[in-house]
Amino acid sequence: MIRWQDAYKVVEAMFPLYVALILGYGSVKWWKIFTPEQCGAINRLVCFFTLPIFTFEFTAHVDPFLWNLPFIGADVISKVIIVIVLAFWAKCSPKGSYCWSITSFSLCTLTNSLVVGVPLMKAMYGPMAVDLVVQSSVVQAIIWLTILLFVLEFRRTGLGVTSNASNGDQGKDLEEDVVNSSDRPSFWSLMKVVWLKLAMNPNSYAVYIGIIWALIANRWHLEMPSILEGSILIMSKAGTGTAMFSMGVFMAMQEKTIACGARLTVFGMVLRFIAGPAAMAIGAIAAGLHGDVLRVAIIQAALPQSITSFIFAKEYGLHAEVLSTA
């Protein structure tokens, strides 16, 4: 049972996030400090500097040799289930949409494990649960956020190429089914452009540099030089705060606080709190999890939406209003 002081620890961890969000919201909505162009610059600062450095910093300090492999396997199985279902829906349903499949994947699977999950799991199940949540966060950054980034870049590259064969109105119509367009360049030439763009995006390799360092450091018991550690920390500590500030700025620029409307809000809640945990329950049972590890696996799948997924959605122009609401 969670005690009052444990519940306070969760509130204590989350409250500063909403301070940053309110400051971002107020700076645009109430105080008119930033112009729309400056708001875009803030999001790019987060996307290309503070967020990748934050990702590298927490990844570099894990110990991959102590990971719970069945727990990670359950996480992978659950997300593969979601991918198969969404791919089938996009391909076979008359209402299927590749763009909405990308957003639905984010809503179902990508959680705010570090900021919300760590204090919550620590209060409920102790250090064991914290280790599992951190492992889940690292795997999310290594595999799933990388895949999300790749798909978003592939979509934007395809839209950019196709829109140069189209006028503005046609470009909007192509957004949902650009994947099926007959006047796109070849798949491999498009892939070449995508990989080139990803190579210039620090989000695509920060986590890999971090995990490589973690493997080397824990294998040979090395420590990062303090001068380098300090240089990373000074930007890393700003990562979560600036991401929430950017989310507040985005919300302030919308006509309504719940920008996506009631229907899409309910849709997002169903994916976040029902579909995601249900898929995790299937994956956890398939991987043979039991006891507190099983409970942690299911609960962490129902945590609030990943801040990183919103930052990516805003940068790549895909349903950012839905993810900000979530």
Automatic annotation (TrEMBL):
Recorded topology in the membrane: Multi-pass membrane protein
Assigned GO CC terms: endoplasmic reticulum; plasma membrane
Subcellular location(s) of the protein: Membrane
GO terms, molecular function: auxin efflux transmembrane transporter activity
Family note: Belongs to the auxin efflux carrier (TC 2.A.69.1) family.
Matching InterPro entries: Auxin_eff_plant, Auxin_Efflux_Carrier, Mem_transp_PIN-like
Keywords tagged on the record: Auxin signaling pathway, Membrane, Transmembrane, Transmembrane helix, Transport
Domain of life: Eukaryota
An annotated GO BP: auxin-activated signaling pathway
Lineage of the organism: Eukaryota, Viridiplantae, Streptophyta, Embryophyta, Tracheophyta
Record-annotated membrane-spanning stretches: 15-34, 41-59, 65-90, 97-120, 132-152, 205-222, 234-252, 264-287
Protein name per the record: Auxin efflux carrier component
The protein's role, per its UniProt record: May act as a component of the auxin efflux carrier.
Organism field: Morus notabilis
Pfam families associated with the record: Mem_trans
